[in-house]
């Protein structure tokens, strides 16, 4: 299996509206991707397809060697981890659980532990706590953690099932700068362990060195895709965001600067 994801001429419609158009996108082994685009550009729909939660309206989709229409999607989903700030809406189910219990529950894709666990499960959870520099919260109920600590616990939970791909959907939303950097630093461990990252964000400065490739999406169409420094060019990013920007680089991370005053006419061109 040389391709982690392979989409060819994929279209997706919902409620009579075309959301994704003629998507051609390949993720090869060893690549870690970011998806950038405005709200309404189709990012969520694209994530739902590659995570096996939505079926394309047309076109061919193959994920982790499984071609849609010829595979068991529920089984495929077990090989894909998913972390999003929106997952915290389920925090009520974890309220009184210890950090280790939350992490171990990831192996069983459950909110709480309802199956018999094994000693090796707890050993793996302890290793993940070490990997993500969270050993100091061992035994702590998760509701007592900071937002940044909770996000790192969610990554550890997603990795309990040893997924081949980890989807991170705006994982730093709402975090302060220290918590954000602690979270981003944890991505190194994910990459080292051989799990492929697909990272969605509005903030290009979150694209740390582990993120090797970028896909720019606008109104359901791909503007550009490829190696990070080749894609994050001023003209391409300006087209994607409808705002004139300059991309600057520091320590292999990009930063955006708006290069001129944003006028009402520019704002009117943004998709609603």
TrEMBL record:
Pfam families: ABC_tran. One of its GO terms (molecular function) is ATP binding. Keywords: ATP-binding, Nucleotide-binding, Transport. The keyword ATP-binding applies. This is ABC transporter ATP-binding protein. PROSITE patterns: ABC_TRANSPORTER_2. The lineage of its organism: Bacteria, Bacillati, Bacillota, Bacilli, Bacillales. Residues 5-244 form the ABC transporter domain. Gene3D superfamilies: P-loop containing nucleotide triphosphate hydrolases (3.40.50.300). It comes from Sporosarcina aquimarina.
């Amino acid at each position: 299996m040389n391709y982690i994801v392979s989409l060819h001429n994929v279209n997706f419609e919902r409620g009579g509206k075309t959301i994704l158009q003629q998507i051609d996108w390949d993720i090869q082994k060893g690549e870690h991707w970011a998806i950038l685009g405005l709200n309404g550009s189709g990012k969520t729909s694209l994530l739902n397809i590659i995570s096996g939660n939505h079926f394309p309206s047309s076109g061919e989709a193959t994920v982790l060697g499984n071609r849609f229409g010829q595979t068991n999607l529920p089984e495929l989903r077990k090989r894909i981890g998913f972390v999003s700030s929106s997952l915290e809406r389920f925090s009520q189910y974890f309220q009184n659980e210890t950090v280790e219990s939350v992490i171990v529950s990831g192996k069983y894709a459950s909110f709480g532990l309802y199956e018999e666990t094994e000693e090796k499960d707890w050993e793996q959870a302890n290793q993940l706590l070490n990997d993500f520099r969270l050993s100091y919260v061992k035994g702590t109920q998760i509701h007592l953690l900071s937002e940044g600590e909770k996000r790192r616990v969610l990554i550890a939970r997603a990795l309990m099932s040893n997924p081949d791909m980890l989807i991170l959907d705006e994982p730093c939303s709402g975090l302060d700068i220290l918590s954000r950097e602690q979270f981003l630093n944890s991505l190194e461990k994910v990459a080292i362990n051989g799990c492929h990252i697909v990272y969605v964000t509005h903030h290009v400065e979150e694209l740390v060195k582990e993120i090797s490739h970028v896909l720019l999406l606008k109104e359901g169409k791909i503007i550009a895709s490829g190696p990070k420094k080749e894609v994050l060019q001023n003209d391409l990013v300006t087209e994607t965001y409808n705002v004139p920007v300059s991309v600057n680089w520091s320590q292999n991370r990009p930063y955006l600067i708006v290069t001129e005053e944003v006028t009402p006419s520019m704002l009117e061109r943004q998709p609603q």
